[in-house]
Amino acid sequence: MLNRPELWTAYIWPAYALTIGGLVALLAWSWLSMRAAERRSEALKRNRP
Amino acid sequence: MHRFANPARFLRIARVATPLTLWIGLALTVAGLYIGLFASPPDYQQGESVRIMYVHVPAAWLGSGGYLSLAIASAVALIWRHPLATIAARAIAPAGAAFTAICLVSGSLWGKPTWGTYWVWDARLTSMLVLLFLYLGYLALSASEGERGEERRAASILALVGVINLPIIKYSVEWWNTLHQGPSIKLTGSAIDGHMLLPLFLCLGGFTLLFAAIVLMRMRAMLAEQRVEARSRRLAEALA
Amino acid sequence: MKLKAKHQRLTLVVGAMIALGGAGALAFSTLGSKATYFYAPSDLVGKAPPTEAIRLGGMVEKGTLKKDGSTVHFIVTDNARTWPVAYTGILPDLFREGQGVIAEGKIDPASGVFTADTILAKHDEKYMPPEVAGALHKVAGKVE
């Protein structure tokens, strides 16, 4: 009863999918925003008058 | 304190620490999640659903631990007016809020097959929901602020006031009768079998390092944005 | 002068935190039992039975679970006092004798039996594989 397949499809997989999805989204957002901002900063430094 | 508050020094350290925390954190997390899903035993009472613990408990730890660091950074920002402390607080808040949300939803998905309900208004679940609202309040206040406005102080004050919720979350299961069970890991020992502690600690360590990596990357992004703003302002002044 | 302002802010924040802690403790002491999610049998025994819907929690006493069609009868204990419960419906997976339970319902004024319309299973903080639990059970059985 405690090992019925519904446990995986209805609860365990959704919980892991949400966690992994949330982690990947947070990491991707931080990484991309950091790279974009640091590139813009470098570009301005090079074009300093 | 002042030595670390120097942005140039911080950036030197952060450039080394970012890839370290990111890659070690990813390795520990992948190992922990894999063992948690496929290579750890089911529980004698709840069977397979115990596997949700390996994502739920680390998320809860970072939701509440993240709030403590948010409050400390806000206190430093309020008292010593360190710009780096404000940036740290603003970098912590979205990550902490995300982990709190993950904790609430994964807990709900764990509650249905074990307790028989997705949600109850007991002291632990309610105080954890209040934590999410505190994060959202901080995010809303700090997003509405100008460069150095009253709102920035308002956000920091909210972060400090909310600290009172942390002991309530921690001790709710001891002070009141709750549906949520008591703490499994105490200073005196653990009520969790060793085979289950392995994926739990791997995920705890991995998630914590990833949290640090996210905060470092957000801080670097905000510092770079500030440099861009300052440079373009100087450029505009020079041209005028 | 600058140092003074810094110290002033430090005192202000520390003072505010102490005041906040005091306010929280005060709120806690008045809130007290109202934040409780359920009552234990000891909270109910010897008092006028509440007529409104309440929650009763404790352990399902071993050897008291009786099935009568789709209705189950069992006794909830907090190791000091007990209370009889009746429930009709589907039980959660983790409901079993010797484990925690929370029943939502009313006390029948005539019989004094707690008539539940919802049953939630409450589990303890122990987690272990079935083999370990089985081994522990055997050891405990030998000691007895």
List keywords for this structure.
heterotrimer; A: 49 residues; mainly alpha; 1 helix; B: 240 residues; two-stranded antiparallel ribbon; globular
Tell me what the structure shows:
The complex is a heterotrimer of chains A (49), B (240) and C (144). Helices cover 84% and strands 0% of the residues of chain A. Chain A has one helix and no strands. The model of chain A has no long low-confidence stretch (mean pLDDT 90). With 49 residues, chain A is an all-alpha fold. Chain B has 240 residues and is mainly α. Chain B has one domain (53-181, 194-239). Chain B is built from seven helices and two strands; from the N terminus they run ααααααββα. Chain B has a two-stranded antiparallel sheet with strand order 1-2. In chain B, helix 2 (53-80) packs antiparallel against helix 3 (83-114). Chain B starts with 6 loop residues before the first helix and ends with a helix. The relative contact order of chain B is 0.17. By secondary structure, chain C is α+β, with helices and mostly antiparallel strands. Chain C has two domains: 2-33; 36-122, Nucleic acid-binding proteins (OB fold (Dihydrolipoamide Acetyltransferase, E2P), Beta Barrel), CATH 2.40.50. Chain C has helices spanning 2-31, 41-44, 130-143; strands spanning 54-60, 66-68, 71-77, 82-88, 100-107, 114-122. A five-stranded mixed β-barrel of chain C has the order 1-3-4-6-5. Chain C is elongated, with a radius of gyration of 23 Å. Chains in contact: A-B, B-C. At the A-B interface, helix 1 of A face helix 1, helix 2, helix 3 and helix 7 of B.
